[in-house]
Amino acid sequence: MSHAAIRAANRSVYRRLASRGVCVTVAVPQRWYSVLGGVLRAEPEPHDSTIRLAVRKRLGKTHTNLYMLWPGIGDLVGTRSHSAIYVDEDPPGLMALQCALAARRTRAGLVILSLQNILKRYPAPFNLIQRHVFARAGACLAATRECEEVIRLRGYRGPVTIMRFAYDLTPMPEFAREEVARRHGFGRPAVGFVGRLVHEKGVDVLLRAVQRLPNVHAVIAGDGPERGALRELVDALDLKKRVSFLGNLAPEEAVRVVGALDVCALPSRTKEFWKEQVGRVPIEAMAQGVPVVGSSSRGIAETIGGAGLLFPEEEVIELAHCIATALASPQREELSARGLALARSEYSLDRAAAALDAALQRSIEAA
User: Fold this and answer.
1) Mean pLDDT in residue range 4-26
2) Residues 130, 198: one domain?
3) What pTM, to 2 d.p., does this model score?
4) Rounded mean pLDDT of 294-316?
5) Which of 220, 223, 218, 219 lies closest to 196, judged by CA?
6) Are the C-beta atoms of 164 and 13 separated by less than 8 Å?
7) Tens-place pLDDT, residues 309-343
């Protein structure tokens, strides 16, 4: 069960799971609202797909803790033996509760997910929902070691397996990279950011670093409440000719833009109630051979490991130095190779599908 799988591109791991001989049904809501893409509707599977797609009506709000599906998902499990439900949602939510109840009724296993890297206290009834879901779950998948630590602090006592975000991407040929650059009108060398334009993402730090790097172009893809302030900062820094704002892009085009960059930057800053979780963008960059430069926010550091360059949060001069290093030979080639190696070892679809398969089997045994 996953609202993220409303997009066909987000079902790759489930297709790879099916290639391991597992009968897979993916349940998604019919509609979802995304702050990046407006109203989303469930995308169909290809006619030759190896998975079954079940589209259900959403009851409640487009929030991971405040919605359920109608009809429920018990009929998708049926009475088959060796069945399990994986709920790709936050454990204190109504959807997680619906999955836990369905698992109990059908005697299926239940696998939950941990994406939170900040310990949060939930009010009633969500704290009670979380307790019930934890008691039923036979296995948990955590996106990072920090997410594993947090779900332990929240009270989960069962087995936890790390399952990182996975992509089946390869470096773009040079002609394709240049075609993307021409289409969006950005120059070379290009250092880019892809994501929401909010204060905690630190795009202002990136712009100030680019000011210190003559001839370097900044590519900003995404939208958000900081857009106006960032455009004003570009004018104040006299960077208008060296900064391209691309706005919101379709997910597939955003991945192509990442692959066309010379350096991918993640200048996030930690706030009291927010810190970077798991960076999808740096994984997409590494998988396409693009060097990554990120702040020392823990989620970024764990994601890129030793395959990228880290700088202390808010340190403009250090970020500028890292960008210059990543653009220079032979460092660029070395960072590209290290990123590719990490992506193929840690963020492959085969590795993610194996982790999910093992968790499902573990939950069935527990049930």
Assistant:
1) 95
2) no
3) 0.89
4) 90
5) 223
6) no
7) 999 999 999 999 999 999 999 999 999 999 999 99
What's the chain's average pLDDT?
Answer: 94
Measured CA to CA, the distance from residue 167 to residue 4 in angstroms comes to 15
CATH classification at residue 300: 3.40.50.2000
CB 161 within 8 A of CB 139: yes
Task: Please give the Cα distance from 287 to 18 (Å, whole number).
Answer: 23
- Same domain? For 104 and 179 the reply is no
| Domain housing 161 | 4-166+348-366
- Classify residue 39 by its DSSP letter: E
| Amino acid 37: pLDDT | 60
Between strands 52-60 and 67-70, the pairing is: antiparallel
b (16+ CB within 10 A) / e for 86-125: bbbbbbbbbbbbbbbbbbeebebbbbbbbbbbeeeebeee
Tokens 């109630």 belong to residue: 273
End-to-end distance of the chain based on CA atoms, in angstroms? 18
Structure tokens at 316: 């403009």
Which letter does DSSP use for residue 273 in this model? T
